[in-house]
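Extended Data, panel c. Modelled sequence:
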Amino acid sequence: MGVTEQTRAMSLLRFATAGSVDDGKSTLVGRLLHDSKSVLSDQLESITRGSRHLGETAVDLALLTDGLRAEREQGITIDVAYRYFATPRRRFILADTPGHVQYTRNMVTGASTADLAVVLVDARHGLVEQTRRHAAVAALLRVPHLVLVVNKMDLVGWSEQRFTEIVDEFVAYAASLGADDVLAIPISALEGDNVVLPSRHMDWYGGPTVLEHLEAVPADRDPAADPARFPVQHVIRPQTAAHLDYRGYAGRLSSGTLRVGQRVTVLPSGLTSTIAAIDVLGVPAADARAPQSVTVRLADDLDVSRGDLIVPAESPLRPRRDVSATVCHLHDRPLVPGRRVLLKHTTRTVQAIVRDIEYRLTPETLGRTPAPERLEVNDIGGIALRTAEPLPVDSYAASRTTGSLLLIDPSDGATLAAGMASE
C-alpha cells in the first residue's frame, strides 16, 4: 500500500482544545505537533525567529498555533486555529480554541464537529469559571469524549494528591452535565511530560500519554449506521444530445446508506420514488455510505431542487414550521423576539422569525434564566422559531448534521447564531 493509500485508510479524529487563559493550550498543541514530528523545518525556523523577537530564550512552541499577530503580541489565542497532522496510526484535525469568555462563540465553532474535547487545567489553580464553561459547552454540543489535561504539574511538584483533587472535582461536575466519558492525564506541556512521551517525573501515573489516547480513542460512531439523510446540493442536467434524459441530484450523504432500488421520500414535498442509479465520481455504484459525495438518480421525474432532503420512504421525519433550538449568539447585534432572520439548514435557506426567547443558559451550570429580553453576543439560550416553509429538521441529539442550523441577518448576510434543534 502506497503512502497516499495508507493515509486515506487511516481513521480520522477531530478534536478541540479548550481551557482558561494561560493554562497552556497553545503550548500543549505546539508540543504535540513538535514531539510527534509534525512540524516542518521552515515552520520550526519561523517560530524560532518569532521566539527571539519576543525575547524568549527557548523556542516558544505556542507560536505554532497562535497565528494572528495580535495573538503573538498579547500571548493569547483569539481565533480558532486549525491544524492538520497525522501519525502512523491516525489522521487528526485539531481546533485550538480561545480561552477568554468573550470568545465563547469561537469555542462553539471549534467543538461543533469534534469527536473529542481536550479541556486544559492549570494544576496550580484547578477548576475555574472557564473550565466549567468549556466543559458545559462540550456537553451541550454532545462531544462524545472529554479529556481533562492537568497541565503545569512541574509547578506543583508533580503532586499526585493535587492531580487527584482536580480530577475528582471535574469528574463530578462533568457527570452533572451528563458527560460520563472522561479521561484525566497529568502533563507538563512546557517540559513535554506525558504529551507524546511518558513522564519520568510521575511514575505514579500509569495511563496513556495525550497522543497515545488520541490515537486509541474510538472515533465518533459511524455515520453510515444512522438513518439516511441526503441533502440535495445541486441538480445535474447536462442538456447535451447524449444526456437529454439525465437528471441527477448531487450532494454529500450526511448519514446512513442509500442503495439502488430503495424507496425514498423527498422532503419537504413528501413525494416518493425509487433510486434508479447512484454515481460515485461518475462511476455507477450499487450503494452509497455516509459521508460519501454522490449523485442520485430517481426513477420518477419529480420536482427536486437544491435544499430538498432525500430520506428512506419509511422515515418518520416530518417537515415542520415551528422549530425550537438552543443557540449560541455569535453577533454583536442582540437577538430579540420578533426579529426576522434567514434560517440555513443543510443546503436549504428559508425565511423565519424569532417568536420567543425562552431562556438564557448559564454555561457553567447549565442553569436557565427564563424569558430574557434578548440574547447578547456569546450568550447561549433557547428560542422558538417560525419558518416560512416547512423544514425536515432532526433533533440535534439524533444528528449533529441535520439537527444543526444557522441564523443569518437578511440585510447583510451576517451570521447571527448557531443552533441545535430540539425534539
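The longest strand covers residues 348-362. This feature is highlighted in the accompanying rendering.
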